[in-house]
Amino acid sequence: MDGFKKFFMQGNVIDLAVAVVIGAAFNSIVQSFVADLLTPLISAFGGLPDFSSLKVTVGRSNFMYDNFINAVVSFLMVAAVVYFLVAKPYTRLRDRAAAKIESKTRDCPECLSEIPKAASRCAFCSTQVA
Q1: Around 8, how many Cα atoms within 13 Å sit in the side-chain half-sphere?
Q2: What is the DSSP pairing of strand 114-116 with strand 105-107?
Q3: pLDDT tens, residue by residue, 41-88
């Protein structure tokens, strides 16, 4: 478990490559979910037999906004999953690790240099500290 934690916390090119590959695979799953399951469900509630027939015709041009809706829903799903399954737990883990690392020094009240917490006298200005 220690090795995985160390791998997860370091930021290098291999980690980024793994993330891109996993993200691409996850994106294809989300695209399929939206196009094959969610879109027909939305169109069923909207009263349309087929969601892919949504279009606006201006002159002789057809604007197929169904693909845009699919892309927006897919983006929102991917963004939510990345936030809730990656960003939020990582931030919580990082904050917990930072809280464990307590400072072992303090500032001298006279010269504001950093001295150990257990010191009774400043090493720089020789002021007695409480």
Answers
A1: 12
A2: antiparallel
A3: 777 776 665 566 677 888 888 888 877 877 787 788 878 887 888 889
CA distance 63 to 111: 70
Instruction: Please give the CATH number for the structural domain made up of 2-103.
Output: 1.10.1200.120
Q: Where are the domains of the chain?
A: 2-103
pTM over 0.70? The answer is: no
DSSP per residue over the chain, as a string?
A: -HHHHHHHH---HHHHHHHHHHHHHHHHHHHHHIIIIIHHHHHHHHT-S-GGG--EEETTEEE-THHHHHHHHHHHHHHHHHIIIIIHHHHHHHHHHHHHS---EEE-TTT--EEETT-SB-TTT--B--
Q: CA angle, 15 as apex, 13 and 17 as ends, to 5°?
A: 70
Q: Identify whether the C-beta of residue 87 lies closer than 8 Å to the C-beta of residue 69.
A: no
